[in-house]
């Protein structure tokens, strides 16, 4: 399994537009075959800072997602809303059955 954490810092003036884009991206991503879970949360300490927490079956699932039309549209739409570059963190979780 692959877990990804992606922190996004959003311009407060763009909050509503960001949330609209995020809801749509989450709804489409959750339909992907290799997606285990996909959610986002807002920091209680830093308003307008969101953490996307993703769980994927394997690397091909992540690769499919990264090239999907809805993900590319989401990134394109939110890029001007960001107040800092986002750098996803990727964690590999070994399969306990191997």
TrEMBL record:
GO terms for molecular function: monooxygenase activity. Signal peptide: none annotated. InterPro entries: ABM_dom, AI-2_Isomerase_LsrG, Dimeric_a/b-barrel. Gene3D superfamilies: 3.30.70.100. Residues 2-91 form the ABM domain. SUPFAM superfamilies: Dimeric alpha+beta barrel. The keyword NADP does not apply. This is Quinol monooxygenase YgiN. It comes from Paenibacillus phyllosphaerae.
């Amino acid at each position: 399994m692959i877990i990804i954490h992606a922190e996004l810092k959003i311009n407060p003036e763009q909050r509503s537009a960001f949330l609209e884009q995020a809801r749509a991206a989450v709804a489409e991503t959750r339909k992907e075959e290799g997606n285990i879970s996909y959610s986002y949360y807002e920091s209680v300490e830093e308003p307008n800072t969101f953490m996307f927490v993703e769980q994927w079956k394997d690397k091909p699932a992540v690769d499919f997602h990264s090239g999907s039309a809805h993900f590319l549209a989401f990134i394109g739409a939110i890029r001007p809303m960001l107040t800092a570059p986002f750098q996803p963190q990727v964690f590999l979780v070994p399969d306990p059955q191997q």
